[in-house]
Write a structure and sequence with these properties.
The complex is a heterodimer of chains A (about 160) and B (about 280). Chain A is of the alpha/beta class. Chain A has five helices and six strands. Chain A starts with a strand and ends in a 5-residue tail after the last helix. Classes of the chains: A alpha/beta (about 160), B alpha+beta (about 280).
Chain lengths: ~160, ~280
């Protein structure tokens, strides 16, 4: 089976979206696209149980609000990874509104909330983030913790493959 | 033989039995019914007679149905059609889109032809030296420009308009990753269309030096041609026709979740239809 899925990575400024992207993608397109048109697209092919899944990753610059990011960037997305910084509560202060916005724009998409920069967050910060933002996974783009696993699990779910 | 028994025997041979009596009684009582039943059987078994009797009734019922059908069944039929249309919406739009495009193009082409004829008449009257010299050599302005740097299609992409996922592609030479090009091209399109708040208009071309990208938008996908060299207006016009023909022939199904084989089949068709040494030789 060969299939392609679009995944959008979004979240507040400075939460490490591009670092996550870079950690997962090795042959990256030039990052200048991010500053020119606010998005960078790259791909990664994952092989799972004889299935080949092409992930097209859209790394969005800046914030998620409707005014700043063209709605079309989200169009047709199969999965959305909403990233926040575990060490900065301000980056998940608006998570409820942002989630509502995403679910309104993309009601059928699979959405993951990710607490990034685990390497910088102490236990208290992690507990607070877990209570207030309820992330599905904690990652560290710096150390690579859970990064591959995050994208692989999402790819498997999007392709309907049971990897357990 | 005992006289009583003899008498009894004689009586039984002369007198009908109970069963016979019953049959005779049934004959008397049911004669008319049996005759009618026989007549009915005859009618039922004889097609012509049956038609002669039932035909007018059916006609009458059909007439009644015709007269009352819209009122009685309109809503039910509308519901069925609505449901069918909704279920196959994408497919229907993909079928209609290229055909509508062709109709519009036909109208515009005709208008342009008339305009061109009027301009030609004006030029002839003006005795413009340059035009006369080139006309004498048998070339139009379009052909003269195109002949200096004949255009050739380097690559062709069919891309999902929403997701930016590549549905099919073909190229004359190996280039950068086609999935990424399709994605970035979709992002650039989205950016350009969003930035100028022109939601009713779409990016149709990108020019970069010697190269240009021609984009033809359809309902849920677009086709982009990367061309090296000059393309005259007449060639662009021909390309648009070829794209519409191609879309009508090969892209009229539901393209939301195409299977894996779709990409390879489309790649072959795109190569056969568009990848040529010069635009002039293209046929959809």
């Amino acid at each position: 089976m060969i299939t392609s899925k679009k995944i959008v990575i979004t979240g507040q400024f400075g939460v490490g979206k591009s670092s996550l992207f870079n950690r997962f993608i090795t042959n990256t397109f030039n990052e200048k696209y991010l500053t020119t048109i606010g998005v960078r697209v790259d791909k990664k092919v994952i092989r799972l149980k004889q299935a080949e899944i092409t992930l097209m990753l859209w790394d969005l610059a800046g914030e998620i609000s409707q005014e700043k990011v063209p709605r079309q960037y989200f169009a047709g997305a199969h999965g959305i990874i909403y990233v926040f910084d575990l060490s900065r509560p301000s980056t998940y202060a608006r998570i409820k509104e942002d989630m509502e916005h995403i679910e309104r724009v993309m009601p059928d998409a699979l959405i993951y909330k990710i607490g990034n920069k685990r390497d910088l967050a102490d236990e208290a910060a992690i507990n607070r983030a877990m209570a207030e933002a309820a992330p599905q996974a904690l990652t560290s783009a710096k150390t690579g913790e859970n990064v591959i696993e995050l994208f692989t699990e999402m790819a498997a779910r999007l392709a309907g493959i049971d990897v357990e | 033989m005992i006289p009583d028994a003899k008498a009894k025997s004689m009586t039984s041979s002369r007198m009908p039995s109970d069963r016979q009596l019953l049959e005779q009684l049934k004959d008397i009582l049911l004669r008319d019914d049996r005759q009618e039943l026989e007549a009915l059987r005859h009618i039922l078994d004889n097609r012509e007679e049956l038609e002669a009797r039932v035909g007018p009734i059916l006609e009458e019922q059909l007439e009644l149905m015709r007269a009352h059908f819209p009122r009685q069944y309109e809503k039910a039929v509308e519901r069925i059609i609505d449901a069918r249309l909704k279920a196959n919406q994408e497919e229907l739009i993909n079928i209609l889109y290229p055909r509508l495009g062709k109709l519009v193009r036909k109208f515009i082409a005709n208008e342009f032809k008339l305009l061109r004829e009027r301009i030609d008449q004006q030029l002839r009257k003006s005795r413009f030296v340059f035009w006369r010299r080139n006309k004498a050599a048998g070339a139009t302005a379009d052909e003269l420009i195109a002949s200096l740097d004949a255009g050739a299609i380097q690559e062709v992409y069919v891309v999902s308009r929403e997701s930016g996922l590549l549905l099919g592609s073909a190229s004359a030479a190996e280039t950068a990753d086609k999935d990424m090009i399709a994605g970035m091209l979709t992002a650039i399109k989205a950016f350009a269309e969003d930035a100028f708040h022109r939601t009713d208009e779409e990016l149709q071309s990108i020019q970069y030096g010697h190269y240009q990208l021609l984009i033809h938008n359809f309902y849920n996908y677009y086709i982009a041609l990367a061309i090296a060299g000059a393309v005259s207006e007449a060639e662009k016009d021909q390309l648009t026709s070829d794209i519409l023909d191609f879309a009508e022939k090969h892209l009229s199904g539901d393209l939301r979740e195409p299977d894996a084989s779709f990409y390879y089949i489309l790649q072959q068709r795109l190569t056969a239809s568009f990848i040529r040494s010069s635009i002039g030789s293209i046929r959809a």
